[in-house]
Design brief:
elongated; 14-stranded mixed beta sheet; 18 helices; single chain; 45% helix; disordered N terminus; alpha+beta
Length: 553
């Protein structure tokens, strides 16, 4: 079989791609009318394309379907509470036990038209849905875009996976088009109108933006999808602002229903899961050494039988991409409700969403730590107070994240457990969590030690003042209260003596507080039997001269 015929027969009967784009939300400005970021999408407006989705548990129980049930029981109880909440059907129960996830959807975009650099014929993909996922108490939002198409060549699928989910071009080709990007990407309405187009070719726009803001610019068609959210480093106005938190290539999931998946070779699978773009048939995208343990690192082959009449299903994950490949002739694999297609769109989507949310949240918290440190000015008391407050807030958010969102395991089903573990391992979330926890603990210990130091200084000052007051108390007690017998004097004269004593006592107390450090050094030197009398006298004189006393060994 020639390479040309082989590639021609590698047809993808049905294709799905789901993009997951985590973004960091900036803190709301002081005085903002919004209490939560998602409230900007809940406003009723003719220009507002977003609406909140009600989950399946909020509707009529009679409409609850079997696929909803299958999705729910896939996860362990604590993950179920995170994803779906808990409580009864009444409004109070939903409010108190609802899911911390808020999902908003826009329905104005019906298709996406992609123009590739090596083809004059664009491809149109149906938009299944476009969603925004918000998470309570975590300044992270995830854009989810699901597209679908039928009867594609494998090379077209590989090129789509490689070029579609790019926030901006990393460089420009000689013809001026964005490197590794689509030549043109267009969002289309149901009536065929073009709602937004990409601008990867506008090289000067991206260069100027980075020069001004020291941050990458987002392609115009992605900015369009996210409105009314606006890019933080831009001149646009908006109450809710976001910025990039990860690599410009968006994580993805892909579903390929093939004519015969057994005809895919090792290089085809490597290009799919590593998202390396199309290549010459029969070749590997990388060296043999790099792909030596490819199957062990990236493949889950529990249900993959390439030598059997029915090849089964192969699942692959590199962290950045999760791929499901099977036969279009298998009714179970193609089942949109109770089959693997339905599971891909629901269970497997959540299996990828959770670890990517974990990584985005950890990166967001790490960024907030760095921001707090960069703003710290040691000599500025107000800056130090702000720094302590920011660190305390990060610590509180991290603790809530740990107890509400952080999971080491999410399912007891072997396939779901293995894929979740594989994705977490490739993303490195366990290592990132340990590093962030150590950094936050170091910060917390520093703040605790600083508080103890301040308390110790306060105790020293109170001890010195108490010692000085004790001398005055004993002296007046020994001499008696009638040292100045003015009990029978007129009231103005008595008030004069009272004010005189009060002022002298206040001055003495104030002096003791101001010089408490030096007085404390004097008391310490006085109690040190190893110091000669001369050094002790010098320590006393230092209280008045304002310099540190000599210290003996």
């Amino acid at each position: 079989m020639t390479i040309a015929n082989r590639e021609h027969e590698q047809r993808v009967v049905h294709f799905r791609q789901i993009l997951l784009w985590p973004l960091q939300l900036m803190p709301l400005a002081a005085g903002s009318p919004l209490q939560q970021h998602h409230q900007v999408l809940a406003e009723e407006s003719s220009r507002q394309p977003w609406h909140e989705l009600a989950d399946e548990f909020s509707g009529d129980p009679g409409q609850f379907q079997e696929r909803h049930y299958s999705e729910f029981v896939t996860f362990l109880p604590y993950v179920q509470r995170f994803l779906y909440g808990e409580g009864g059907n009444d409004d109070c129960g939903r409010q108190l036990g609802g899911s911390p996830i808020r999902v908003f959807r826009r329905d104005d975009v019906a298709q996406v038209r992609m123009s590739f650099k090596d083809s004059d014929t664009p491809l149109c993909f149906a938009i299944v849905h476009i969603d925004l996922y918000f998470f309570h108490d975590i300044d992270v939002v995830i854009l989810v875009v699901e597209i679908a198409a039928d009867d594609l060549d494998l090379r077209q699928v590989q090129d789509t996976l490689y070029r579609f989910g790019r926030a901006y071009p990393p460089y420009w080709d000689e013809d001026g088009s964005g490197g590794h990007c689509l030549r043109l990407c267009e969002w289309l309405a149901a009536d065929g109108r073009v709602l937004a187009t990409s601008d990867y070719e506008k090289r000067r726009k991206y260069l100027t933006f980075v020069s001004r803001f020291r941050a990458p610019c987002i392609a115009s068609h992605w900015e369009f999808l996210l409105r009314p959210l606006v890019l933080h480093h831009s001149d646009e106005e908006g109450p809710v602002r976001y910025r990039q938190i990860e690599y410009h290539r968006m994580p993805l999931l892909a579903y390929l229903a093939m004519d015969d998946p057994r005809r895919l070779d090792r290089g085809d699978f490597a290009r799919l899961v590593l998202v390396g773009g199309p290549g010459k048939g029969g070749s590997l995208p990388y060296s043999d050494q790099h792909l030596e343990d490819f199957e062990a690192r990236f493949c889950y082959d529990r249900y993959w039988h390439p030598q059997a009449a029915q090849g089964g299903t192969r699942l692959l994950s590199c962290g950045h991409a999760c791929i499901m490949v099977g036969s279009a002739r298998d009714a179970y694999f193609s089942g949109a409700e109770n089959g693997l297609l339905g599971q891909f769109r629901h269970q497997f989507f959540l299996l990828a969403l959770i670890p990517h949310f974990h990584k985005a949240a950890l990166l967001m918290l790490s960024d907030r730590l760095v921001t707090a440190l960069n703003r710290l000015q040691i000599g500025n008391a107000e800056s130090v107070k702000t720094f302590k407050r920011d660190i305390r807030e990060v610590l509180e958010v991290f603790l809530r994240f740990t107890h509400r969102y952080w999971f080491n395991e999410i399912s007891d089903q072997a396939q779901a457990r293995a894929l979740f573990a594989m994705t977490r391992r490739h993303l490195g979330t366990e290592r990132l969590y340990a590093e962030l926890r150590e950094e936050i603990q170091d910060m917390s210990q520093y703040l605790d030690s600083d508080s103890l130091r301040r308390q110790a200084n306060t105790v020293v000052r109170l001890t010195v003042v108490t010692t000085a007051g004790l001398i005055a108390t004993i002296s007046t007690g020994f001499l008696g209260m009638n040292l100045i017998d003015a009990a029978q004097e007129p009231l103005p004269e008595r008030l004069f003596f009272f004010a005189l004593v009060f002022v002298l006592s206040a001055l003495l107390t104030g002096f003791a507080i101001v010089r408490s450090k030096r007085l404390s050094d004097f008391l310490e030197a006085l109690s040190d039997e190893r110091l000669p009398a001369g050094d002790k006298l010098a320590t006393l004189l230092a209280v008045w001269r304002g310099r540190r006393p000599p210290r003996g060994s």
